TrEMBL record:
Keywords: Membrane, Transmembrane, Transmembrane helix
Organism for this UniProt entry: Bifidobacterium mellis
Domain GmrSD restriction endonucleases C-terminal: 115-251
Lineage: Bacteria, Bacillati, Actinomycetota, Actinomycetes, Bifidobacteriales
Keyword Transmembrane helix: yes
Name this polypeptide is given: GmrSD restriction endonucleases C-terminal domain-containing protein
Entries under InterPro entries matching the protein: GmrSD_C (IPR011089)
Positions of transmembrane segments: 38-56
Length: 265
């Protein structure tokens, strides 16, 4: 039989009371304990972060309703209230941009595609490539989305500085009811000047297909007009909104009491 295991001690030198020995186990225990505490704190932080992420939007929404943040007046707000709210839209078919035939129709019969028509409408100091022709060679845009002035010059590397935006994005329209339309109605929507604006190219790219709850123009002076136009387009084509989209629109309209709808000319 062997005797009980003897603890191993580490020699620490001499003191005035003689040799001093130390058991290394407590230090190792302290290191392990510290590691465990750090891991526990990390787990708590992750759980707390997830919880805040889930609860905070609901809290903010509730606070907004209590403080009147989502109350608004005017034709735009009134029309918004009449739109169908659908949070569970299930388009029957996969979205295809080409289904809207952008630039493939000529509704006014002037021989120009809708991009040229919108550039002609929205730019100033306009010049065309040929006298009386359709193609815009150059012009100046006071961009509604950024508030900046853009000098447009037609060319392979410069034309994209000004792009034509669908105010209600085509994919948003598809999810909001356009997936059930026939081809003629989709083409009419895709080429409707009422839903088209000449805007800053990078701003248009940043927007993508986002709705008002995910993207608004950086030019705050234009946000009310932007939301009002989205509402007018959705009303014209009987498109739906989501609860989140509607709430974001109301929050914008709250800042501009009496906001009118743009006229469809």
């Amino acid at each position: 039989m062997t005797g009980p295991r003897r603890r191993r001690y580490r020699y620490r030198g001499r003191s005035r009371y003689g040799s001093v020995w130390r058991n290394p186990a407590p230090a190792r225990f302290r290191r392990e304990s510290l590691t465990e505490r750090v891991l526990i704190l990390l787990v708590v932080a992750v759980v707390l972060g997830i919880t805040i992420g889930l609860i905070l939007p609901r809290v903010n929404g509730g606070v907004g309703r209590l403080t009147g943040r989502y109350t608004a007046t005017g034709d735009a707000a009134q029309t918004l209230q009449s739109l169908t709210v659908d949070d569970h839209a299930r388009p029957g078919r996969q979205y295809r941009r080409e289904a809207f035939g952008f630039k493939e129709t000529d509704e006014d019969g002037n021989g120009c595609n809708v991009r040229e028509d919108v550039l002609t409408r929205d730019l100033t100091d306009l010049r065309t490539t040929t006298p009386g022709g359709c193609k815009v060679a150059s012009g100046r845009l006071q961009d509604p989305y950024t508030g900046r002035t853009i000098e447009f010059v037609r060319g392979p590397k410069t034309s994209s500085a000004v792009q034509i935006d669908h105010v209600v994005a085509l994919e948003n329209a598809w999810r909001s009811g356009a997936s059930k339309w026939d081809t003629a109605r989709r083409y009419r929507f895709g080429n409707d000047p009422f839903n088209l604006l000449a805007v800053d190219g990078p701003a248009n790219q940043a927007k993508g297909s986002a709705s008002a709850d995910y993207w608004l123009p950086e030019n705050k002076d234009y946000q009310c007009s932007y939301v009002a136009r989205q509402i007018a387009v959705k009303d014209k084509y009987s498109l739906s909104v989501t609860s989140s989209e509607k709430q974001a629109m109301l929050a914008v309209l709250h800042t501009c009491p009496g906001q009118p709808l743009p006229q469809d000319r």
